Amino acid sequence: MEVFVEYNGNFIETLKPAAEELKDYLHRFNVMLPKGFKTEINLQAEDWIREIAAALKKGFVLTIDYGYPANELYHYKKAAGTLLCYYNHSINDDPFLHVGEQDITTHVNFSALLYAGVKEGLNHCGFTSQSYFLNSLGLADHVRQLEQNGNGKTNDGKEISSLALLISMGQKFKVLIQQKGLGQVRLSGMQFAFQIE
After folding, report:
1. How many CB atoms are closer than 10 A to CB 176?
2. What value, to the nearest 5°, has the Cα angle with vertex 182 and ends 179 and 183?
3. How far apart are CA 107 and CA 66, in angstroms?
4. Nearest CA to 189 among 62, 49, 57?
5. How many other CB atoms are there within 10 angstroms of residue 74's CB atom?
6. Which of 106, 124, 139 is nearest to 194 (CA)?
């Protein structure tokens, strides 16, 4: 079933049979959702990567966001979905609160971006966490060097703590790199790449 939103003085969710494109999407990633499972599907993300692939003649596509491969995103532990809302530095999961005033977000299906990119001629270079990506590029070594040299502060005194936050938050963010027209490439940021299907 697909959730639709209607308005009759208040916003309400109604269920209708899912569109074929949603069923095809789930089938493509071998996803069988059990009864009661609720999740988000962003078909426009595949359109977005197709547009980028069509426009790119030679270069890289670097996607960094919250998300998972399909086998993790549609895992039973995420049976409530990933939708979150942000309003005045607070988090909730009700998109009908503060309508028009809060940010609404869901996690990315990186398998869908990979799949759509490959179909449009993008080559897969690697998939990892932001933390592994930044550490592969030397961020942790840079932070240690700042600490050892006593130069870990800028004018506002936050450089080391900001860098450390990037590393710790980096397990939640994922990095997908795709490319076109560059032949075989080996990227230093992908030293600790994960498998993605």
Report:
1. 24
2. 105
3. 5
4. 62
5. 22
6. 124
Give the per-residue pLDDT at 33.
92
What letter represents residue 105's amino acid? T
Residue 186's identity, in one-letter code, is R
Helix axes 139-149 and 159-169, enclosed angle (nearest 10): 150
Domains of the chain, each with CATH number or no CATH: 41-190 (3.40.50.12710)
Phi/psi region, residue 9 (left: phi>0; alpha: psi -120 to 50; beta: rest), is left
Task: Say if CB 113 and CB 177 are below 8 A apart.
Answer: no
What is the predicted pLDDT for the residue at 3? 95
How many angstroms separate the CA atoms of 22 and 1, rounded?
Answer: 10
Q: Count H helices, E strands: the chain?
A: 7, 9
Distances (CA, A) of 90 to 82, 86, 87, 93, 98: 16, 6, 5, 10, 12
Give the whole-angstrom CA distance, residue 139 versus residue 133. Answer: 9
Query: How does pLDDT run across 90-127, given as a tens digit for each residue?
Result: 999 999 999 999 999 999 999 999 999 999 999 999 99
Whole-structure pTM over 0.90, yes or no?
no
Token pair, residue 43, equals: 């078909």
d(CA 33, CA 69): 16
- Say if CB 170 and CB 131 are below 8 A apart: yes
